[in-house]
Each structure stands twice: as C-alpha cells, then as structure tokens.
Amino acid sequence: MNVLRTRLTADDWVTAGLDALARAGPDAVAIEPIAAALGATKGSGYWHFASRATLLEAVLERWIAVATVNIIDDVNAQGGSPVARLERLLALVTDATITHPGVILTLSHQDPIVRSAVQVVTAQRVDFVAALLRGAGFNASEAERRAVLAYAAYVGYAQLAATVPDKLPSTKRARRALQRTMVNTLTAR
Amino acid sequence: MNVLRTRLTADDWVTAGLDALARAGPDAVAIEPIAAALGATKGSGYWHFASRATLLEAVLERWIAVATVNIIDDVNAQGGSPVARLERLLALVTDATITHPGVILTLSHQDPIVRSAVQVVTAQRVDFVAALLRGAGFNASEAERRAVLAYAAYVGYAQLAATVPDKLPSTKRARRALQRTMVNTLTAR
Amino acid sequence: MNVLRTRLTADDWVTAGLDALARAGPDAVAIEPIAAALGATKGSGYWHFASRATLLEAVLERWIAVATVNIIDDVNAQGGSPVARLERLLALVTDATITHPGVILTLSHQDPIVRSAVQVVTAQRVDFVAALLRGAGFNASEAERRAVLAYAAYVGYAQLAATVPDKLPSTKRARRALQRTMVNTLTAR
Amino acid sequence: MNVLRTRLTADDWVTAGLDALARAGPDAVAIEPIAAALGATKGSGYWHFASRATLLEAVLERWIAVATVNIIDDVNAQGGSPVARLERLLALVTDATITHPGVILTLSHQDPIVRSAVQVVTAQRVDFVAALLRGAGFNASEAERRAVLAYAAYVGYAQLAATVPDKLPSTKRARRALQRTMVNTLTAR
DNA sequence: CATGAATGAGGCTTCATTCAT
DNA sequence: CATGAATGAAGCCTCATTCAT
Predict the structure, then answer these.
(1) Looking at residue A142, which CATH number applies to its domain?
(2) Three-class SS string for chain C?
C-alpha cells in the first residue's frame, strides 16, 4: 500500500505507528519497520520526528484518544442504564483485546514514555467505570474500589487471552456469559 | 561485586539470570549483560550454556520452580482451610509482584520459549486455585471457572501494581483488605 | 588508504572483495575485514549488502565475469586459429594464477555458494576449450574429453604455482615453451 | 568410539587428526573437533600438543609418510616396467582422491606449515615420477618436465573430482581408460 | 521533503588458548 | 594426565541515529 503516495505527512506515520502498536506493541513502534511499512526510508521518519521517542509519543497520544475517549463516547452514545453500559464496555474492550494483541504489551512496558500514557488511560478508564458504578448507586469510595477490581479483571483477562487463550471461553456466547458474571459480581451488594 | 569470586557455576548464572528476569523481564536475560553483572566474560557464559536461548530456558525452568512450586509448597505447608490458603496465596503473590516488576513482562512476551513457560506456570496456578475452590465445596467446572477469574484478577492486579501503583492501596493493611474482598467475592455462592 | 573517500558504493565493496578473493580466497571475503580495508565501518557494509553471504555472492558474480567471460572475449577478440587462441588462453590464465594466489582456494572450497560459482566457471571454461578443439577438427566427444584434461592440467598447474613455484619454469620464455608443449599434446592426433 | 579408552596417547590424537585431514582438510585438524571425536576435552589435547599448530605439524608429518612414502613402496613392491608402475601410481592416487576429499584442501592451503609439508610431498612425488620416466628412457631434464606435467594433471584431476565430479568419468572402467590416455601422452615421444 | 550512506553501540557466537586443580 | 572454567579476539548481525545532498 501507499505505493502511489509520494508525500507522507506526520499523520501518516502516526497512523501506521498506531497500527504497529495494536498489532505488536510499543517495541514495534520504531522508525525502521514503520518506514518499511510505508514504503519510505528511515531518514524520512527523522524528518517528521526528532527521534523514535518522539514518534512513540505521538502514537501514544493518538492511542489515548482512540483507545479510550472514543470507546467512552461509544458506550455513552447508546445510552441505557449504568449496568447496561458497563456490560457494553466490557464486551467492546475484551473483543478489542483479541483483535489487538499488542495492547497487552503496551499495558506492561518498562519505557517511561509508555508507562505515563498507560497511566493516563488507566485513570480515565477507572474513573469512567467508577462513575458508572456511582450511577448504579454505590458511594464514591466503594465505586472506586470496585472500579479498580473491574479494571484488574479486564487487564488480567487480556493477559490470559494473549498467552493462554485455551483457558478462556472460545465462543462469543460463552464470553458474554462470563462478562455478565463479572458485571453481576461487581454490582452485587 | 563478585570481584572476589574466581569460579562460577552454571547455577550462579541461572541465579543472576533469574534476578534479571525479575527486575527487567526476559529481554534482560542475555549472555553479555549478565556476564557483566557477574564480573565474568561472555565466553565464560558460553561454557555453561550453549546459547542465549539455553540460558533463558534454564532461567525460566528455575522461575517455574520458585514462582510456583515453591509458593504452592509454602501455602500448603502452613495448613489451614482452603479459603485461608487462598488468602495466603494472594498475599504472597501480590507482594512478589511489587518487588519483582519484571514478572509482568514475562507474562506477556512474544518469544515462544517464554510463552511456553508462562503456559506451564499459568496452568499450575489455575489448577492449584481450582483445587482449593473444590476443597471449599465447589464442583469441578464451577471451581475451574472461578479459578480462571481469580487468576485474571491477580494478573491484572500485578499489571496495575507495575504501572499505576498509586491507584492501588499503599498500606499492607489496605492491601490485605482488598485481598479479603477478592477472596470473599470468589467464594461467594 | 582511502582516507579521502567519503562515500562508497556497493561496487567499491565488490571491488575490494574481489581483491580479497584474489589474494586470500573466499574466507577473506568478509564484511568486517573489508570494511577495515576500505576505511569504513561494518554497518556501512550492511547498508550495501544484507549479509556476508550476499556480499560473497556479488563478489563471485563479478569473479565469474572477470575470470572467464572477459578472458574469453579477449581471446576471441584477437582472432587467429583455434590452436593460436588456445595458446593465448593458456598464457593469460597461467599468468593470472601467479598474481592471484587466492583463486586456487576458491576452486576448492566447501561453501555451496562458492562451489556453485566454481561450477559455472568450470563449465564455461571447459565448454570454451572444447569449442576451440572442435574448431581444430576434433569431434564433439573427443573435444570434450581433451578439454577436461586441458582444464585439469591448468588447474594443477595453478596449484603448483601457488604452492611449489620453484618446480615450475621461472622465466616467461620457459613458461611459453611449457604451454606450447601442453597445446601440442592436447592437439596431437 | 573410544568410550572405553581411559588414557589417550599423542599418537591417538595424530591418528584422529589424519582422519580429519583426509575427510575435511587442514582446517579440520583443530583441537576442539578432534577432542570431540575422541571423547576427550580440549585441555587434554593441550597436554599432548603445545598448540593447534604443533598438532597439525605432527599430523602432516604422518601424512607425508602415509600419503607418499607408503604409496611409493606399494608401487615399487609389485615390480613391473616403469610404464606399468606409472599406471599403477595414477590409479592408486586418483582413487585416493575420491575417498579422501580433504587432500585437495591440503594441496591448496595458505598456512605456511601446510605449504611446507605439501612442498615435501610434491617434491617426492615429482621426483618419483621423474625417476620412472628416466627408467622409461627419457633424459633427466625431459623426465623432470614431463613429471611436473603429470603431477599437474593429477592435481587438477583431483580438484575437478572434488568440485565438478559430473564432468569426470563415473565408472572405474572409464577412469582407467583416462589414466591410460594420460600415461600414453606422457610417455609418447 | 526525503534519500542514501554511514556510524556505533550492543548482543550473538566460535574457537584457540590458558590455567588452576 | 586430564578436566572444567575462563579469556579474548574475531566475525556476524540489528538498529537508532546522523548527515550531506
């Protein structure tokens, strides 16, 4: 692809970088492989970005937007009760894990740049879940505590999906059942 | 360090490798940096191990032992009810996560050698938890399902501890409370 | 040397590689020593060639050309009877042996890449000599048989020149006499 | 093999080294692979030989004996006319080439140690052939010149056998015919 | 804007050699 | 006599980065 494109914008690089992030994690967001994917040269990348780190930052910035803000908007757009939204969120997010295996590598990465992006995303997500739980009638501190647990369960689930998928339900139906169990557990009094 | 030691055994290398694994993940288990850490030369490493892969395998083998078998023995040695053991397991394991941030990088790694070690460890752990839950009165399939959830929660918790520790309880006391909540949730009927 | 040259082409590398091949055989056609010879860095070599094998292939390709095709062209360009051309070929080829001791190491090398280049060169040379012998009146099978003998004699001569030069005639005059003897023997009925 | 042998002599090393020389040339006469073949350790080799060079020298010394002196004795032992002996020599020697492919690597080697052994062997062989030719009625200088050609042809033949065997006769019968042609040519007036 | 060329750090691997035991 | 352990030089390769054009 992109054989016809003669001039590339920084944005094209970020898009390709996001793709690499989703597919193979932060380590894959490097100048060389992305240049190859775009049919460009390394030098070209260094024109748009001062360094690999700068590119990665730009990609993570975009990731924060699409990986969280967009999802939150989606979930809210369709309305419904807080519990229904919670369920929808879980469905979206666990399916994404399967199609985007690189995410889990992002969540557990050493690089400070990555970690700080992960912190932002985690905070947004935990806050969002906490808000839904408050909407479902929990007080602030209880909501926060349960939101953390919910997020931990999601992250762990993603991890297992990436490494030992055979331990997890393989049909969509069974996955939905598991999600409902999780939601029930989380909202149980 | 180690300036005084003249002779090194393969075991010394594995120990140093395990250290690197715990601190910085599988990528850090490499001949040259570990040689440097031991004050030895790379050639020496190649006396004990045919290749970097062989070293990594040896280190992972040891990891399987200390990270799981030893822990399981510890938990069982002290006796108590299945629920008490479950709580103790969670305590041991979440504390270890904080002191060994590299573990989380091990859990989500691309290298097939690493993945297969992770699979062994995961299976052992899930099986152990499932056995405890059966001991607590659950039937086999229910126990297995809950064990998977428990493990997902643990892994996610470890992930959060490694990346956003401030979202988690900082005192030992508060951590114990959270663990108790998890155990209660898992063993609730 | 080459301190002044700032930019190197792949061709420069091949030339330097051919030099190494002629002087010290295929084993000397390696990235690092040639980089040193060119006053460049190994990384630079890896820009032009994907691997050592690729460089060696390029060098051998050039060797096939200069060691055979060019010589055949030279011999044919000057015209003359087949027997005269045969004599000229022998002269060219034995002189080259003395200045390029590495050639003999190329002829007897284990590496499959090298062997296949040697096979091409041998076939071309034997075919060329056979054609000259057919031109001198021999039938196809007799020409082929004698061409093989001629080539064996050349190779053996090269070998002796490389290892025990004092057993061979040292003056150009005496070498020419020996060559004439060989040609006479080969074309005798 | 040699699993039962507890103590090795220097002679055992030389024998194993000669084997390696015949099979894979001088480069294979190295401490490490021969230790492996003998089921010993490198250090053991360094007890018997000061260095790899010393081992190689010992092996080449033995090679000079078995590769030449023994052959000459064989040829002479059976008696017959000089021409008959010449034919027998050629037969022995070309067959040896096929069973001992390493020989050709020995004949064309850079290492001065190897070259000087090759010089001794070549001189012995050329002298022996020259003596046979003198016995067949040629004067000293003519005999010497033809002996060199004969040896060149043999060496070249060995080379071709090692690299492009399909260019050479494959049946024993055809090889004998080619040898007779060579002898006839060499002894023709 | 982008390329092509080059650099250099870092890691892998082999092997002759050394040496304490 | 021999082993096991270690060294160091040499070569392979990758990749982030730099820079002249």
Answers:
(1) 1.10.357
(2) CCCCCCCCCHHHHHHHHHHHHHHHCHHHCCHHHHHHHHCCCHHHHHHHCCCHHHHHHHHHHHHHHHHHHHHHHHHHHCCCCHHHHHHHHHHHHHHHHHHCCHHHHHHCCCCHHHHHHHHHHHHHHHHHHHHHHHHCCCCHHHHHHHHHHHHHHHHHHHHHHHHCHHHCCCCHHHHHHHHHHHHHHHHCC
DSSP D169: -
For helices C172-187 and D140-163, what crossing angle results, to 10°? 70
> Residue A70 — φ and ψ, nearest 5°?
-60, -45
CB-CB neighbors (< 8 A) of D109 in chain C: 105
Residue B6 domain-assigned (yes or no): no
Residue C77 to chain D, least CA–CA distance (Å): 28
**C18 assigned to some structural domain:** no
Place of tokens 């929990």: A138
- Identify whether B108 is part of a domain: yes
Domain residue limits at A170 = 59-187
Q: What is the pLDDT of residue B6?
A: 65
Distance of CA B47 to the CA centre of its chain: 28
Q: Is D174 on the interface with C (CB under 8 A)?
A: no
How far apart (Å, rounded) are the C-alpha atoms in residues B33 and B38? 9
Angle at D59 between CA D90 and CA D144, to 5 degrees: 35
CB neighbour list of residue C172: distance below 8 Å, 6 or more residues apart = none
Q: In sequence order, which residues have a C-beta less than 8 Å from that of residue B129 and are 6 or more positions away? A: B86, B89, B146, B147, B150, B151
Tokens coding D18 = 């000669």
* Inter-chain touch D155–C154, beta carbons under 8 Å: no
CA–C1' gap, A39 and E6, in angstroms: 21
- Cα gap A33→A7, rounded to integer Å: 18
| Percent of chain C topping pLDDT 90 | 47
Q: 3-state secondary structure string, chain B? A: CCCCCCCCCHHHHHHHHHHHHHHHCHHHCCHHHHHHHHCCCHHHHHHHCCCHHHHHHHHHHHHHHHHHHHHHHHHHHCCCCHHHHHHHHHHHHHHHHHHCCHHHHHHCCCCHHHHHHHHHHHHHHHHHHHHHHHHCCCCHHHHHHHHHHHHHHHHHHHHHHHHCHHHCCCCHHHHHHHHHHHHHHHHCC
pLDDT(D135) > 60: yes
Total domains, chain A:
1
Using CB atoms, pick whichever of C104, C119, C167 lies closest to residue D108: C104
Q: What is the mean pLDDT of chain C?
A: 87
CA distance linking residue C162 with residue C159, whole number of Å: 5
Q: How far apart are CA C151 and CA C118, in angstroms?
A: 13
pTM above 0.90, yes or no: no
**C4 found inside a domain:** no
- DSSP class of residue A67 equals I
* pLDDT given at position C2: 42
Cβ atoms within 10 Å, residue A32: 11
Q: Best residue in D90, D120, D166, D167 to probe C by mutation, most C CBs within 10 Å?
A: D167
Position A6 confidence tier, pLDDT thresholds 50, 70, 90: low
